[in-house]
Design a protein that fits this description.
Blueprint (H helix, E strand, L loop, with lengths): L2 E5 L3 H13 L3 E5 L2 H4 L6 E6 L8 H10 L3 E8 L4 H8 L4 E3 L4 H12 L41
């Protein structure tokens, strides 16, 4: 069972995503802030980070934990839409929009656990709006909440 560190400052999103990840076979530890994340001393197979943590930057936290060899692979699950931050995050691991269906998150987690989706790749995918802003590389960016396959935004 892959050990996964989930860093998310929104308690509702954190609880919902952790529950889904456990159902899909992940051993999940959730922290709700940058400050709590800096206290991590255990090793994890995967780190799943929000970028905007309220008290700090999820990309910086991921960099710190990788430098300490506490996480093997990194993914970002974020509502952040600016291309500079997404590009910086993608140097560490795939960046997934919070508007993506949960299946996209699970697919990316399986891929990184199997050694796929190397640093520098992006798997951001908007599911509702073809007119979302895009980066220069064509990746789509959007904001929103976790959705199950087939669920539409209000």
């Amino acid at each position: 069972m892959p050990r996964l560190l989930h860093v998310e400052n929104d308690p509702l999103v954190a609880r919902a995503l952790a529950r889904l990840l456990r159902i899909h076979g992940y051993d999940v530890q959730t922290v709700l802030s940058y400050a709590s994340g800096t206290l991590i001393t255990e090793k994890f197979d995967i780190g799943l980070f929000d970028i905007d943590l309220g008290d700090g930057d999820g990309v910086e936290l991921a960099e710190q934990l990788q430098a300490k060899n506490l996480i093997k692979t990194t993914l970002f699950f974020t509502a952040r839409t600016d291309t500079d931050t997404a590009a910086r995050a993608s140097l560490l691991g795939p960046v997934i929009s919070k508007t993506a269906e949960i299946d996209v998150v699970l697919e990316a987690l399986r891929a990184v656990a199997a050694g796929g989706l190397p640093r520098g790749s992006t798997t951001r995918r908007a599911v509702d709006d073809e007119d979302e802003p895009t980066s220069s590389s064509g990746d789509q960016y959007a904001t929103g909440t976790i959705k199950r396959a087939g669920q539409r935004s209000a």
